[in-house]
Amino acid sequence: MSKRIAVLVTHDFEDIEYSEPVQAFRAARHSVLNIENRAGNIVYGNKRKFAVTIDQSIDDVSVHDFDALLIPGGHSPDRLCNDDRFIHFIRNFAHAKKPIMSICHNPQLLITAKVVKGRLMTTLKTFATDLINAGAVYYDVEVVNDNNLYISSRSPEDLPAFIEESLMVLNQ
Questions:
Q1: Domain 4-170 is classified in which CATH homologous superfamily?
Q2: In this predicted model, what pLDDT tens digit does every residue of 80-115 receive, in sequence order?
Q3: Spans of all domains in the chain
Q4: Active-site hit among 104, 128, 143, 159
Q5: Is 104 a catalytic residue?
């Protein structure tokens, strides 16, 4: 069954952490909608390899519109951390018990949303202490799947495992 996936993304996302999962999700016939401040905005990856057109404003979406959430890494999550609308959306997603797929820098956003306590997760070693201090159980492995609700990976090198695990969850 096709799923609707919300992607929280803004400028300086990690190009490959956006492009590869999104391509894989679309190839599996899932619908992907890019969400940022305003529909029609164009945001760029930190390596400027990809430009992403925003489909919907964060002001116009509801958790109930989606089956899963993808948060690509790079500096995009750091930028979104400062906007309560994105934090509220993530918190509602977690409370709705819908899958959240995150890679690389995302713990900052999830920590700010206060949704990692007791969760099994991985991230870049740089953020491991922050994740542990926020109450998550940290594993230094390529992908962690916490009850099909939190799928996390460390870096672009882990993308094949991250995509495989995410698709397994989405295809259920």
A1: Class I glutamine amidotransferase (GATase) domain (3.40.50.880)
A2: 999 999 999 999 999 999 999 999 877 889 999 999
A3: 4-170
A4: 104
A5: yes
